[in-house]
Amino acid sequence: MQPVIFDMDGVLFDSERTLLQCWLDVAGEHGLDKAFVRETYIKCIGTNSAQTLEICRSAFLPLPGEAMLRSIRDESAELHRMRYADGKIPLKAGVREILEFLQSKQIPVGIVSSTRKQIIEQRLRAAGLSGYFTGIVGGDAVRISKPDPEIYLLACREFGFDPGRTFPFEDSYNGIRAAGAAGMRPIMVPDIVPADEEMRRLSETVCKDLFAVMDYLANALLDGET
Asked: Are 163 and 183 spatial neighbours (Cβ–Cβ below 8 Å)?
């Protein structure tokens, strides 16, 4: 059976969109241009906390300065925690259905995310999804985050997956680039940012949602690929 790996934010959970809204709300309170803040946030998708900080510094320091940068980052994170204090961030459409499908076919499933492992585990428990996954690798396990392939290569070693036979599901450009560089078979499920020509070239296919991914995998099973 060919295994699959889920990214978390923007693929399993609608966390990219909910956090972006927090950024925009905080930006409005500080009188910042929301279009500029949205553009900066999109650059951070698929990166770890250290890379996000550097992207924000490059974007914001020439404008409001270090103090404002920290306010935006910290206030946005706190607002997101308050809004989802129960830990139950909305799931993306089709999450439970595709996990049940994969489990019924005995297809091994892992998670690879730039988010810290502890947070991944907390979100899975809150959503009642912990039992579906073979293993988890978070961004705190590697030195260099996506688009570097290190995190995917580490995950395949830990999970016992053959990279060339593994389908990673990603919503971000950096995620698709990382999976492609690892020699995998990436499937893009766009969230906030649509697929461009590069993403279509690097991806085995682009699916509008997880229901479409499930159909793609079901057809692969019928064709004897898995």
From this structure: yes
Query: What pairing do the DSSP bridges indicate for beta strands 167-170 and 135-137?
Result: unpaired
pTM: 0.88
Give the integer Cα–Cα distance in Å for 222 and 226: 9
95-104 vs 210-222: helix axis angle to the nearest 10? 20
**Strand (E) or helix (H) holding 49:** helix 49-60
Answer whether 89's CB lies under 8 Å from 14's CB.
yes
Distance CA 210, CA 174 (A): 19
Structure tokens at 199: 């993403």
- For residues 61-84, one letter each, b for 16 or more C-beta atoms within 10 angstroms of the residue's C-beta and e for the rest, the string is eeeeeeeebebbbebbeebbeeeb
Question: What are 138-141's contacts with CB under 8 Å, separation 24+?
Answer: 138/113, 138/114, 139/48, 139/49, 139/113, 139/114, 139/115, 140/48, 140/116, 141/117
Long-range residue pairs from 81-85, CB within 8 A, at least 24 positions apart, any chain: 83/18, 83/22, 84/18
Each residue of 184-221: pLDDT tens digit? 999 999 999 999 999 999 999 999 999 999 999 999 87
Here the tokens at position 129 are 């999804």
